Amino acid sequence: MGVALITPFKSDETIDFDALALLVEHQIKNGTDYLVVCGTTAETPTLSETEKQEITDFVLKSNAGRLPVVLGVGGNNTKAVIEKLQRSDFHGVDAILSVTPYYNKPSQEGLYQHYAAIAKASPVPVILYNVPGRTGVNMTADTTLRLAKEFPIICAIKEASGNFTQIDDIIKNKPKDFMVISGDDGITFPLITLGAVGVISVIGNAFPKEFSRMVRLALEGDYASSRQIHHRFTELIELLFVEGNPAGVKSMLAVMGMVENQLRLPLVPNTIKTYEKIRVVLNELNIKC
To answer: More exposed terminus of the chain, fewer Cβ within 10 Å: N or C?
Structure first.
Protein backbone atom coordinates (compact mmCIF):
# COMPACT_ATOMS: atom_id res chain seq x y z
CA MET A 1 0.00 0.00 0.00
CA GLY A 2 1.26 3.36 -1.06
CA VAL A 3 -0.42 6.46 0.37
CA ALA A 4 -1.15 9.61 -1.62
CA LEU A 5 -0.29 12.18 1.05
CA ILE A 6 -2.59 15.13 1.62
CA THR A 7 -1.21 18.64 2.12
CA PRO A 8 -2.24 19.88 5.57
CA PHE A 9 -3.06 23.59 5.69
CA LYS A 10 -3.39 25.99 8.60
CA SER A 11 -6.42 28.27 8.96
CA ASP A 12 -4.56 30.96 6.98
CA GLU A 13 -4.04 28.40 4.17
CA THR A 14 -0.28 28.18 4.62
CA ILE A 15 1.21 24.69 4.66
CA ASP A 16 1.16 23.06 8.09
CA PHE A 17 4.55 21.37 8.10
CA ASP A 18 4.17 20.20 11.72
CA ALA A 19 1.04 18.28 10.76
CA LEU A 20 2.77 16.95 7.65
CA ALA A 21 5.63 15.62 9.79
CA LEU A 22 3.14 13.84 12.05
CA LEU A 23 1.36 12.40 9.03
CA VAL A 24 4.60 11.03 7.58
CA GLU A 25 5.46 9.39 10.92
CA HIS A 26 1.92 7.99 11.10
CA GLN A 27 2.53 6.25 7.77
CA ILE A 28 5.99 4.94 8.60
CA LYS A 29 4.93 3.49 11.96
CA ASN A 30 1.72 1.87 10.73
CA GLY A 31 2.57 -0.30 7.76
CA THR A 32 2.54 1.95 4.70
CA ASP A 33 4.93 0.58 2.06
CA TYR A 34 5.68 3.81 0.17
CA LEU A 35 4.78 7.50 0.15
CA VAL A 36 3.30 9.34 -2.83
CA VAL A 37 4.18 13.04 -2.66
CA CYS A 38 2.49 15.84 -4.62
CA GLY A 39 -0.16 13.69 -6.23
CA THR A 40 -3.62 15.08 -6.94
CA THR A 41 -4.74 14.23 -3.38
CA ALA A 42 -2.15 16.79 -2.22
CA GLU A 43 -4.20 19.55 -3.94
CA THR A 44 -1.27 20.19 -6.27
CA PRO A 45 -3.29 22.39 -8.67
CA THR A 46 -3.50 24.93 -5.83
CA LEU A 47 0.18 24.73 -4.89
CA SER A 48 2.89 26.93 -6.36
CA GLU A 49 6.01 25.33 -7.82
CA THR A 50 7.94 26.65 -4.82
CA GLU A 51 5.47 25.05 -2.41
CA LYS A 52 5.62 21.72 -4.25
CA GLN A 53 9.40 21.73 -3.94
CA GLU A 54 9.21 22.67 -0.25
CA ILE A 55 6.80 19.81 0.42
CA THR A 56 8.95 17.34 -1.50
CA ASP A 57 12.12 18.39 0.31
CA PHE A 58 10.35 18.28 3.68
CA VAL A 59 8.91 14.79 3.17
CA LEU A 60 12.24 13.46 1.92
CA LYS A 61 13.98 14.88 4.99
CA SER A 62 11.29 13.63 7.39
CA ASN A 63 11.22 10.20 5.79
CA ALA A 64 15.03 9.96 5.86
CA GLY A 65 15.09 7.02 3.48
CA ARG A 66 12.83 4.83 5.60
CA LEU A 67 10.19 4.30 2.90
CA PRO A 68 10.40 4.54 -0.89
CA VAL A 69 9.05 7.82 -2.26
CA VAL A 70 7.01 8.32 -5.45
CA LEU A 71 6.74 11.90 -6.73
CA GLY A 72 3.84 13.23 -8.77
CA VAL A 73 5.15 14.72 -12.03
CA GLY A 74 2.54 15.19 -14.70
CA GLY A 75 0.52 17.68 -16.70
CA ASN A 76 -1.22 18.42 -19.96
CA ASN A 77 1.77 20.20 -21.51
CA THR A 78 4.24 17.49 -22.50
CA LYS A 79 7.07 19.94 -23.11
CA ALA A 80 6.69 21.45 -19.64
CA VAL A 81 6.69 17.98 -18.03
CA ILE A 82 9.87 17.05 -19.89
CA GLU A 83 11.55 20.29 -18.84
CA LYS A 84 10.63 19.59 -15.22
CA LEU A 85 12.09 16.09 -15.47
CA GLN A 86 15.30 17.49 -16.92
CA ARG A 87 15.82 20.23 -14.33
CA SER A 88 14.69 18.43 -11.16
CA ASP A 89 16.88 16.68 -8.62
CA PHE A 90 15.48 13.19 -8.06
CA HIS A 91 17.86 12.23 -5.27
CA GLY A 92 15.78 10.23 -2.79
CA VAL A 93 12.90 9.74 -5.25
CA ASP A 94 12.31 6.15 -6.33
CA ALA A 95 9.74 6.71 -9.10
CA ILE A 96 7.37 9.26 -10.55
CA LEU A 97 3.60 9.04 -10.87
CA SER A 98 2.41 10.79 -14.02
CA VAL A 99 -1.27 11.44 -14.66
CA THR A 100 -2.75 11.35 -18.13
CA PRO A 101 -3.04 14.84 -19.69
CA TYR A 102 -6.24 16.48 -18.54
CA TYR A 103 -8.71 18.88 -20.19
CA ASN A 104 -7.25 18.82 -23.71
CA LYS A 105 -8.42 15.21 -24.25
CA PRO A 106 -5.66 13.74 -26.44
CA SER A 107 -6.25 10.72 -28.66
CA GLN A 108 -4.79 7.33 -27.75
CA GLU A 109 -1.84 8.10 -30.04
CA GLY A 110 -1.40 11.42 -28.26
CA LEU A 111 -1.35 9.64 -24.89
CA TYR A 112 1.19 7.16 -26.21
CA GLN A 113 3.47 9.89 -27.55
CA HIS A 114 3.14 11.88 -24.30
CA TYR A 115 4.25 8.96 -22.16
CA ALA A 116 6.89 7.86 -24.65
CA ALA A 117 8.49 11.30 -24.28
CA ILE A 118 8.31 11.03 -20.48
CA ALA A 119 9.83 7.55 -20.54
CA LYS A 120 12.76 8.81 -22.61
CA ALA A 121 13.35 11.79 -20.31
CA SER A 122 12.77 10.33 -16.84
CA PRO A 123 15.82 9.34 -14.77
CA VAL A 124 13.63 7.15 -12.51
CA PRO A 125 10.90 4.54 -13.12
CA VAL A 126 7.53 5.83 -14.32
CA ILE A 127 4.10 4.87 -12.98
CA LEU A 128 1.26 5.73 -15.36
CA TYR A 129 -1.91 7.15 -13.82
CA ASN A 130 -5.24 6.66 -15.55
CA VAL A 131 -8.10 8.51 -13.86
CA PRO A 132 -10.67 9.45 -16.52
CA GLY A 133 -13.17 10.76 -13.96
CA ARG A 134 -10.77 13.62 -13.28
CA THR A 135 -8.95 14.07 -16.58
CA GLY A 136 -11.75 13.63 -19.11
CA VAL A 137 -9.84 10.98 -21.09
CA ASN A 138 -9.50 7.23 -20.62
CA MET A 139 -6.27 5.48 -21.54
CA THR A 140 -7.30 2.15 -23.03
CA ALA A 141 -5.79 -1.20 -22.19
CA ASP A 142 -4.19 -1.33 -25.67
CA THR A 143 -2.34 1.96 -25.08
CA THR A 144 -1.24 0.95 -21.58
CA LEU A 145 0.05 -2.41 -22.83
CA ARG A 146 1.82 -0.77 -25.77
CA LEU A 147 3.70 1.52 -23.39
CA ALA A 148 4.42 -1.27 -20.92
CA LYS A 149 5.90 -3.48 -23.60
CA GLU A 150 7.97 -0.81 -25.38
CA PHE A 151 9.43 1.06 -22.38
CA PRO A 152 10.87 -1.01 -19.51
CA ILE A 153 11.25 2.18 -17.43
CA ILE A 154 7.44 2.33 -17.32
CA CYS A 155 7.04 -0.07 -14.43
CA ALA A 156 3.38 0.21 -13.41
CA ILE A 157 0.00 1.85 -13.80
CA LYS A 158 -2.25 3.30 -11.14
CA GLU A 159 -5.62 2.37 -12.63
CA ALA A 160 -8.57 4.44 -11.42
CA SER A 161 -10.95 3.98 -14.34
CA GLY A 162 -13.18 1.66 -12.32
CA ASN A 163 -13.52 -0.46 -15.48
CA PHE A 164 -12.94 -4.05 -14.35
CA THR A 165 -12.88 -5.40 -17.91
CA GLN A 166 -10.21 -2.91 -18.94
CA ILE A 167 -8.10 -3.48 -15.84
CA ASP A 168 -8.38 -7.26 -16.15
CA ASP A 169 -7.28 -7.00 -19.79
CA ILE A 170 -4.12 -5.17 -18.68
CA ILE A 171 -3.42 -7.73 -15.95
CA LYS A 172 -3.94 -10.62 -18.34
CA ASN A 173 -1.70 -9.32 -21.14
CA LYS A 174 0.95 -7.22 -19.39
CA PRO A 175 4.69 -7.97 -19.30
CA LYS A 176 5.66 -10.11 -16.31
CA ASP A 177 7.29 -7.33 -14.28
CA PHE A 178 4.73 -4.61 -15.05
CA MET A 179 2.54 -3.83 -12.03
CA VAL A 180 -1.13 -2.91 -11.93
CA ILE A 181 -2.00 -0.78 -8.89
CA SER A 182 -5.52 0.06 -7.78
CA GLY A 183 -6.33 3.75 -7.79
CA ASP A 184 -9.64 3.28 -5.96
CA ASP A 185 -9.74 2.31 -2.30
CA GLY A 186 -13.21 0.83 -2.61
CA ILE A 187 -12.29 -1.76 -5.27
CA THR A 188 -8.77 -2.59 -4.12
CA PHE A 189 -9.76 -5.94 -2.63
CA PRO A 190 -11.48 -7.33 -5.75
CA LEU A 191 -8.72 -5.98 -8.00
CA ILE A 192 -6.08 -7.83 -5.98
CA THR A 193 -8.04 -11.05 -6.46
CA LEU A 194 -7.69 -10.41 -10.22
CA GLY A 195 -3.93 -9.83 -9.99
CA ALA A 196 -3.36 -6.21 -8.99
CA VAL A 197 -0.38 -5.77 -6.66
CA GLY A 198 -1.83 -3.23 -4.23
CA VAL A 199 -3.18 0.31 -4.04
CA ILE A 200 -2.16 3.94 -3.96
CA SER A 201 -4.58 4.87 -1.23
CA VAL A 202 -6.39 7.96 0.02
CA ILE A 203 -7.96 6.44 3.14
CA GLY A 204 -4.50 5.19 4.07
CA ASN A 205 -3.71 8.73 5.20
CA ALA A 206 -5.99 8.06 8.17
CA PHE A 207 -5.87 4.27 8.48
CA PRO A 208 -2.53 2.96 7.20
CA LYS A 209 -2.39 0.06 9.66
CA GLU A 210 -5.82 -1.33 8.84
CA PHE A 211 -5.77 -0.77 5.09
CA SER A 212 -2.22 -2.05 4.56
CA ARG A 213 -3.20 -5.19 6.49
CA MET A 214 -6.15 -5.70 4.15
CA VAL A 215 -3.83 -5.43 1.16
CA ARG A 216 -1.26 -7.85 2.59
CA LEU A 217 -3.86 -10.43 3.56
CA ALA A 218 -5.32 -10.32 0.05
CA LEU A 219 -1.89 -10.65 -1.55
CA GLU A 220 -1.21 -13.66 0.70
CA GLY A 221 -4.45 -15.27 -0.49
CA ASP A 222 -6.30 -14.90 2.82
CA TYR A 223 -9.34 -13.49 1.09
CA ALA A 224 -11.76 -14.15 3.96
CA SER A 225 -9.78 -12.02 6.44
CA SER A 226 -9.05 -9.34 3.84
CA ARG A 227 -12.70 -9.16 2.80
CA GLN A 228 -13.68 -8.62 6.42
CA ILE A 229 -11.53 -5.47 6.60
CA HIS A 230 -12.76 -4.37 3.17
CA HIS A 231 -16.38 -4.57 4.33
CA ARG A 232 -15.56 -2.82 7.59
CA PHE A 233 -14.45 0.28 5.67
CA THR A 234 -17.02 0.26 2.85
CA GLU A 235 -19.25 2.97 4.32
CA LEU A 236 -16.31 5.16 5.28
CA ILE A 237 -14.80 4.91 1.81
CA GLU A 238 -18.11 5.98 0.29
CA LEU A 239 -18.14 9.05 2.55
CA LEU A 240 -14.55 9.71 1.58
CA PHE A 241 -15.49 10.79 -1.93
CA VAL A 242 -19.12 11.88 -1.68
CA GLU A 243 -18.10 15.56 -1.71
CA GLY A 244 -14.79 15.21 -3.48
CA ASN A 245 -11.21 14.33 -2.67
CA PRO A 246 -9.42 15.23 -0.40
CA ALA A 247 -12.31 16.85 1.49
CA GLY A 248 -13.42 13.49 2.89
CA VAL A 249 -10.07 12.32 4.16
CA LYS A 250 -9.29 15.75 5.60
CA SER A 251 -12.56 15.53 7.54
CA MET A 252 -11.49 12.13 8.88
CA LEU A 253 -8.07 13.40 9.88
CA ALA A 254 -9.63 16.47 11.49
CA VAL A 255 -12.03 14.32 13.52
CA MET A 256 -9.01 12.27 14.59
CA GLY A 257 -7.21 15.47 15.65
CA MET A 258 -4.35 15.17 13.17
CA VAL A 259 -4.96 18.17 10.88
CA GLU A 260 -7.08 21.28 10.57
CA ASN A 261 -10.08 20.80 8.30
CA GLN A 262 -8.75 23.29 5.76
CA LEU A 263 -8.60 23.15 1.95
CA ARG A 264 -7.70 25.71 -0.70
CA LEU A 265 -10.24 27.11 -3.11
CA PRO A 266 -11.79 26.03 -5.35
CA LEU A 267 -12.03 23.05 -2.98
CA VAL A 268 -13.94 23.48 0.27
CA PRO A 269 -14.39 21.30 3.37
CA ASN A 270 -17.21 18.78 3.64
CA THR A 271 -20.62 20.03 4.67
CA ILE A 272 -21.51 19.70 8.35
CA LYS A 273 -23.90 16.86 7.42
CA THR A 274 -21.14 14.78 5.79
CA TYR A 275 -18.63 15.69 8.50
CA GLU A 276 -21.00 14.44 11.20
CA LYS A 277 -21.67 11.23 9.26
CA ILE A 278 -17.92 10.64 9.14
CA ARG A 279 -17.66 11.29 12.88
CA VAL A 280 -20.44 8.78 13.59
CA VAL A 281 -18.88 6.07 11.43
CA LEU A 282 -15.47 6.63 13.02
CA ASN A 283 -17.05 6.23 16.45
CA GLU A 284 -18.73 3.00 15.30
CA LEU A 285 -15.33 1.74 14.15
CA ASN A 286 -14.01 2.43 17.66
CA ILE A 287 -11.58 5.01 16.36
CA LYS A 288 -10.67 7.55 19.01
CA CYS A 289 -12.06 10.98 18.04
So the answer is: C
